[in-house]
Specification:
Elements (H helix, E strand, L loop, with lengths): L6 E9 L7 H14 L4 H16 L6 H12 L2 H12 L10 H11 L2 E6 L3 H11 L6 E4 L4 H7 L7 E3 L8 E10 L11 E5 L18 E4 L5 E3 L5 E3 L11
Helix pairs in contact: 3-4, 4-6
Bound molecules: magnesium ion.
Length: 245
């Protein structure tokens, strides 16, 4: 278009899985949705068993891939039926209780993008729909290291350009901030970052690791506040930046 884009001072990069949305709540929603479509509990347990086996062999699978497998016996309509039901089923919220208020604060402070990593685009989008976030700027990433993703957005003049996958305009910003639940998302990161550690006693192997000194560990998204320049900081108790347990 050749139009000069507005450059913001700060823009956020917000992880989706386990930061905004609860993975086990997605599993509960998955189960409830399939049960509502007449899939038996035994069949669902078998899918989960298969998923655990594949994951312990180092293979990542999406829950939606199991629904596609059902199409062999039940016809292809099952995938659309599942998707509609999954997006709309009542009573199985997937967002963490602090996510909504945090996103509202972030939205007031400036632009942000929700970054979600996944091997199955359709499933990632369906999860965003279940969250009610499909109408926010998002990007589905093929790299789990968000520091590298952000570095890849850096332009020759030092600004960053974030490009949502959906209808939103690209964001040009001088500074990025990042929030994620996985330490390794910050590998090589030198910017403003927040490692979300909701429960230090239940740290998953995939979340472990050290984070750079510029990254602050927070226990809740409620800790993240923005000043009137849109600069994020963590209020309240701050934990050590070195996190190994
Ligand atoms: Mg995550």
């Amino acid at each position: 278009m050749g139009e000069r884009q507005k450059v913001s001072e700060w823009a956020g990069f917000i992880d989706y899985d386990r930061t905004l949305a609860d993975t086990s709540a997605h599993v509960a929603r998955f189960r409830a949705t399939l049960l509502s479509l007449g899939v038996s509990g035994d069949e669902i347990n078998m899918m989960r068993e298969q998923q655990h086996q594949l994951e312990s062999a180092g293979v990542t699978v999406s829950l939606l891939s199991f629904v596609r497998d059902l199409a062999v016996a039940r016809g292809p309509q099952i995938v659309d039926d599942f998707s509609d039901a999954y997006a709309n089923i009542e009573g199985y919220p997937v967002n963490f209780p602090d996510a909504g208020a945090f996103l509202r604060r972030a939205q007031e402070a400036g632009p942000f993008i929700i970054g979600t990593w996944g091997i199955d685009q359709e499933w990632q989008i369906l999860k965003l729909r279940a969250s009610g976030y499909e109408s926010l700027p998002y990007q589905i990433l093929s790299d789990q290291n968000k520091a590298r993703v952000i570095a890849g957005c850096r332009q020759s003049d030092g600004t960053y350009i974030l490009r949502p996958d959906n209808e939103f305009a690209p964001v040009v910003t001088r500074n990025c901030w990042l929030v994620d639940d996985k330490a390794r998302a910050f590998d090589g990161y030198g910017g403003v970052g927040f490692l979300l550690q909701r429960n230090r006693n239940e740290v998953l192997p995939s979340q472990r690791g050290e984070v750079p000194s510029s990254v602050v560990i927070i226990e809740s998204l409620d800790s993240l506040v923005f000043n009137n320049q849109g600069v994020p900081s963590a209020r309240g108790r701050q934990l050590q930046g070195d996190f190994r347990t």
